[in-house]
Amino acid sequence: MWGYSNIPYFGDTLTLTYLLLDMTTILLIALPMTLVIITGEIDLSVASVVGLASAVLGLLHEHGVGMATSCIIALAVGLICGAFNGFLVAYVGLPSLAVTIGTLALYRGVAVGLLGTTAVTGFAQDWTKRAAQVIGATGIPTIIVLFAVLAVVFIVLLHFSPFGRGIYDIGLSTEAAKFSGVNVRRTKLILFCLTGVVSALAGIYFTLRFGSARGDNATGLELQVIAAVLLGGVSIFGGRGRLPGVIAGVLLIGVISSALRLQGVTVNIINIIIGLLLVLSVVSTTVLAWVSDAAARRKRASGPPQPSQSVGTH
């Protein structure tokens, strides 16, 4: 039977290292994206925010600004981008799909405009080494520790807090959430702000990981993030999903992509396979929801069992 043992080098520690290094950007962005999609919204601008944060780092580096200060400014830019998306969606009432398609182009245009077609390199080795450093002989990059901390924070926020229950309520019914006391506008604004900040953090990591700041960094990454979130069991219609499943979905896509690359499969074919997985995840969610609703309707139609009547003699 064909398996990973037939793929050269797939079981090596070095393969694990590069798999996690490559997937960390998606793992980070998938955390807030999960919360956004559970509310029934979506953010397609995340990859452009990654590129914009990278461009900001490069521009500041060219002007001699320290790396720590540059990182703080890049995170602030991500926060502003997320707040702009959140304001248009939550307070103006525009559809998140239309808003983030527009800001996808806007942020990417600004990022490319800042640096043009040039790539900024020459970042301090202390910072670039940290981005690729591993923990002893385990092969696990140290950046995974940061992801693990953020994952715990987001899991507690979503699954063990009143704020998280409000997120699910919004996804199930915005009107019902309002009546139950959830501040829908504020919640959505906070979630888009989180998406912007974490995307900027992913942009900082992406830049240091490859030692290159470009305005077109991470182009198309939003599709992989959304595919991983939906493959992890989050409903595109909102109201359902869990973060552990999303993390497993990201790792599944990473393992599949890594195995196919080691087998010599081209990037285009890998993208086709990921696209098919995305379509199947959406279709399967819809089919399961339809089956569940049909079963519930049949149960209601059958009604409660009628009490048996005993025939007595008079």
TrEMBL record:
CDD domains (alphabetical): TM_PBP1_transp_AraH_like
Entry keyword annotation includes Coiled coil: no
Listed transmembrane segments: 16-37, 44-61, 67-94, 106-125, 131-158, 189-208, 220-238, 245-263, 269-291
Pfam families: BPD_transp_2
Membrane topology term: Multi-pass membrane protein
Protein name: Autoinducer 2 import system permease protein LsrD
The keyword Transport belongs to this UniProt entry's keyword annotation: yes
GO cellular component: plasma membrane
InterPro entries: ABC_transp_permease
Keywords associated with the record: Cell inner membrane, Cell membrane, Membrane, Transmembrane, Transmembrane helix, Transport
Species the sequence originates in: Kribbella pittospori
GO molecular function, one term: transmembrane transporter activity
Subcellular location(s) per record: Cell membrane
